[in-house]
Design goal:
The protein is built from three helices and six strands. By secondary structure, the protein is α+β, with helices and mostly antiparallel strands.
C-alpha cells in the first residue's frame, strides 16, 4: 500500500514539527502548538485512508523538498532527485507525518518496528509514504 501526499492547499513544502509554545493564563501556563503546524498536520491526515492497522509495521518515507528559487534551470535540473542535507531536520519532518497518521493508518506510531527515511530535492514538494505489515 502506498499513500501519497502532495501539497495543493497553500502549504509550499513539508513542515517539520516545531517546539511547543507556552502562554500564561492567570496563574497557569498553557502549552500549545502553532496553528500553522496544526493545520498542516490536519491537511496531511485528511489525505490518508482510515486503515487502522494493528500489527507491526515497516514504514518508508521520502520527503520531496523544493529546490532553492535562486538556481538557474540548468542547476535545478542537476539538483533534481539528489539528497537534501540542509534544514529542516529529518526527525522533525518524520514526527509530523507519524503524528498525522495516528488513528488513520495505524492505531499508534508505537507499532512501527522499522523505518527508512530520506529527503530529496524535487520540482514539486511532496511526501511519499509506503507502509507494510510485517
Amino acid at each position: 500500500m502506498t499513500i501519497t501526499y502532495k501539497d495543493v492547499e497553500g502549504f509550499e513544502k513539508p513542515m517539520p514539527s516545531p517546539r511547543p509554545r507556552f502562554k500564561r493564563v492567570g496563574r497557569n501556563v498553557q502549552t500549545y502548538m502553532p496553528a500553522s503546524y496544526m493545520h498542516h498536520k490536519a491537511f496531511i491526515a485528511q489525505q490518508m485512508p482510515r486503515l487502522l492497522l494493528t500489527g507491526q509495521l515497516k514504514v518508508t518515507i521520502m520527503f520531496g523538498l523544493p529546490m532553492p528559487a535562486r538556481l538557474s534551470k540548468v542547476n535545478k535540473e542537476a539538483l533534481s532527485g539528489t539528497y537534501h542535507s540542509k534544514k529542516p531536520d529529518i526527525d522533525n519532518l518524520v514526527k509530523t507525518v507519524l503524528d498525522a497518521a495516528n488513528k488513520h493508518i495505524w492505531i499508534d506510531d508505537g507499532q512501527i518496528v522499522s523505518m527508512v527515511t530520506e529527503k530529496r530535492y524535487v520540482r514539486e514538494p511532496k511526501i511519499l509514504m509506503t507502509v507494510e505489515e510485517v
